[in-house]
Design the sequence.
């Protein structure tokens, strides 16, 4: 049993290797995939007795307004390592309409730093972070990828959750009630991939907030304390807060009459009237005319827009936009325009690199050498693309911060670069429209 001196000696030999980050031995972040060879990595209940402190009751789970517990299963084991169950945690697994939560009194091994999330506890996973749910039965050697409306005929002995952030989380039901284990697997699949969008937690949260309505920033009956930037007044308050006096809120896209891919209200240079914007809109792909994203206290701004369609009016409209943005700067300084489609990889190339990276990180085999694994990582080109994005973001940051010049992001990849600039400056992405 794991409590013997021989097993303790083996664990002391394993732990330095696991903490060193070698591909050969990893924690549950790179667990084996849902194969049946991988099922042997978790010891049987007979060879791994709980002997641990009892789990907290589900009633102790911290719930947000509108959050409800949908299903729960007790005596669940959460797998921590891939080659031993000596460090596994025992507790209650529950699913709400917002998250998957594991309640335990056990101490998480290998944890050096304590992080606290305002919305999620240590063992919580938001349902929107779940990419795939797999149920496994060891005895029948069956596994099934669960969808929102599927049935589960066999009794699951293991639940594998693949997350969008590359985590692989495994739960064992060896000592759980079979029916509660089956139900929670189906509930997690149903609420993480809802057919009906009204099952998303945001709707339940909004209903709960509206019942306790207060005089919030979005209206007397909304109950919200955070601006949603869906109304004219939200943007107007933001302009005043940031001191962008040479910018104004435009309602040219009210009821989405100008562009279906832009919000109804957004911020534009004061020198551009709504009639000007209506004339310029057909010249842009998707009618995505320039819109204000962020304002620095020195007066420079970050603006995004789609590419201008080729034609006779291209240069004329381009000069008109550059002039309007330059006039919105207190010092009437110049404008730097970055064509992201020319200076950065294509969207499809970035997506393909991400797929290759994910396949590498959740690969079943752990026998490859570190040198081969790092070479495979390099061949995904993901790190190369990340470097290019960060390098370009740093260059744009220098234009705004050191040279006090407004920057226009033009092209399909502007959202990625905007987020990189925000992260580099420590800013919150408040203006994603």
Sequence:
């Amino acid at each position: 049993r794991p409590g013997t001196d021989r097993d303790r000696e083996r664990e002391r030999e394993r732990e330095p290797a696991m903490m060193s980050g070698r591909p050969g031995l990893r924690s549950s972040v790179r667990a084996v995939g849902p194969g049946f060879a991988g099922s042997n990595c978790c010891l049987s209940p007979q060879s791994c007795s709980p002997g641990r402190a009892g789990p907290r009751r589900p009633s102790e789970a911290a719930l947000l307004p509108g959050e409800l517990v949908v299903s729960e299963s007790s005596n669940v084991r959460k797998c921590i390592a891939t080659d031993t169950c000596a460090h596994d945690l025992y507790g209650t697994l529950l699913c709400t309409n917002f998250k998957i939560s594991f309640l335990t009194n056990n101490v998480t091994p290998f944890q050096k730093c304590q992080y606290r999330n305002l919305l999620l506890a240590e063992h919580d996973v938001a349902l929107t972070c779940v990419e795939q749910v797999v149920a496994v039965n060891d005895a029948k050697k069956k596994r099934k990828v669960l969808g929102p409306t599927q049935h589960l005929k066999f009794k699951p002995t293991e639940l594998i959750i693949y997350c969008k952030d590359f985590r692989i989380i495994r739960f064992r039901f060896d000592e759980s009630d079979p029916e509660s284990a089956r139900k929670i697997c189906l509930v997690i699949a149903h609420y993480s991939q809802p057919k009906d969008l009204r099952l998303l937690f945001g709707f339940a949260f909004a209903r709960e907030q509206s019942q306790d309505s207060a005089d919030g920033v979005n209206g007397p009956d909304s109950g919200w304390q955070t601006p949603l930037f869906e109304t004219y007044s939200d943007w107007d308050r933001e302009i005043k807060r940031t001191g962008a006096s040479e910018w104004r809120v435009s309602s040219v896209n009210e009821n989405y009459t100008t562009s279906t891919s832009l919000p109804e209200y957004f911020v534009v240079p004061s020198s551009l009237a709504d009639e000007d914007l209506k004339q310029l809109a057909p010249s842009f792909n998707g009618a995505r005319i320039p819109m204000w994203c962020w304002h620095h206290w020195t007066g420079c701004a970050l603006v995004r827009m789609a590419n201008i369609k080729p034609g006779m009016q291209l240069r004329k409209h381009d000069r008109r936009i550059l002039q309007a943005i330059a006039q919105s700067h207190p010092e009437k300084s110049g404008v730097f325009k970055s064509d992201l489609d020319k200076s950065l990889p294509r969207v499809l190339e970035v997506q393909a690199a991400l797929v290759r990276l994910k396949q590498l990180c959740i690969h079943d085999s752990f026998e490859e050498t570190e040198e081969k694994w790092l070479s495979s990582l390099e061949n995904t080109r993901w790190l190369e693309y990340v470097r290019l994005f960060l390098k370009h973001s740093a260059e744009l940051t220098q234009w705004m911060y050191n040279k006090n010049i407004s920057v226009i992001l033009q092209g399909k990849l502007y959202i990625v670069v905007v987020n990189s600039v925000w992260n580099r400056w420590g800013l919150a992405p408040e203006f994603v429209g």
Q: What stands out?
A: The chain has a mean pLDDT of 77. The longest helix spans residues 382-401. The two ends are 57 Å apart (CA to CA).
